[in-house]
Amino acid sequence: MKVLGIETSCDETGIALYDSEHGLLADALYSQIDMHNDYGGVVPELASRDHVRRVLPLIEQVMEKAGCSREDVDAIAYTRGPGLIGALMVGSSIAKSIAWAWDIPVMGVHHMEGHLLAPMLEENPPQFPFVALLVSGGHTQLVEVKGIGQYQLLGESVDDAAGEAFDKAAMMLGLDYPGGPRVAALAEQGVSGRFKFPRPMTDRPGLDFSFSGLKTFTLNTVQAHGGKECDDQTRADIARAFEDAVVETLAIKCRRALRQTGMKQLIIAGGVSANKRLRARLEEMVQGEKASLYYARPAFCTDNGAMIAYAGCQRLLAGQTDMEGIRPLPRWPMADLLPL
Ligand code: ATP
Ligand code: MG
Ligand code: FE
Prior knowledge:
Blueprint lengths: L1 E6 L4 E8 L3 E9 L1 H5 L6 H23 L8 E7 L3 H18 L3 E5 H7 L12 E6 L4 E8 L2 E7 L5 H11 L6 H10 L23 H13 L7 H30 L3 E5 L6 H13 L3 E4 L9 H13 L23
Parallel strand pairs: 1-4, 4-5, 6-9, 9-10
Antiparallel strand pairs: 1-2, 2-3, 6-7, 7-8
The site of adenosine-5'-triphosphate has 24 residues, from helix 4, helix 5 and helix 6.
């Protein structure tokens, strides 16, 4: 089955064609980052308008790259939620229209299920069951995954998501949006240990997270050293201390989740899972637990069409469709998803 995936939940237009027999045939992404940069974050109305401009040309590009025509496509998958309502409306209206015009089924995909299943697009994918750490711009969750749609939330952030904390720390350090990759690059020049940031909520039991305190800690440290104008080495050392704190906190909670569930496989997904230091630290941690770590290539950690095409394909193969009306779900708990 060949499924055309459409991702428009936020500030990236992602399109891909996934084939259940031959894997990913082609994918393309347009990031609106430059457009939103002047505003220091995503402007929802600008995002929706830009998705309108990008979706169809990107679909044509993907079809051409894959050497496929419309007759080859068996179904459409699109991101139904969660995300920005206007951006979701664009993807869902186009997906439903194409499905109607081409007379093929369509399936609305949960954006976080897309992220969660992205490591399945790689070689040697994990087998169910496993523990998943979802770390993105809007989510930080530990989930026990027994199969597609069988998700038990083990813990989540009580305030900011890890990616959001990276983005805010970046702003305090005078870096552009999105901050994650930029903080990580700056941290490369930093000395570990000059500043010691807390590891929030690791001193008490449980699998919840809190990252808003790290933000305050970053701000106070920057201000104590002359604000954004502080010298480059100090900025780098602060970035390193921040990254170390996030990485170590996530590693402690992931180890706890593996031990609590008795599982031996950990997958990480979402934008922050592209972070090299996080991958290296978790690799070390799972070795100690005699467990294995799985993640997607960096381009499939952040938003992309391939994960939506893949997740939609699995549900479509199981006979699920979503033909009724155009109803995006800007808020949509993963617990509401149907098992396959
Ligand atoms: P959600 O998926 O929760 O709806 P989102 O789609 O905005 O949110 P993603 O696209 O998965 O989030 O990820 C973007 C986030 O990942 C941003 O916060 C970004 O700063 C962060 N990020 C990306 N690369 C890195 C990196 N190398 N290190 C740390 N953070 C990163
Ligand atoms: Mg994004
Ligand atoms: Fe995302």
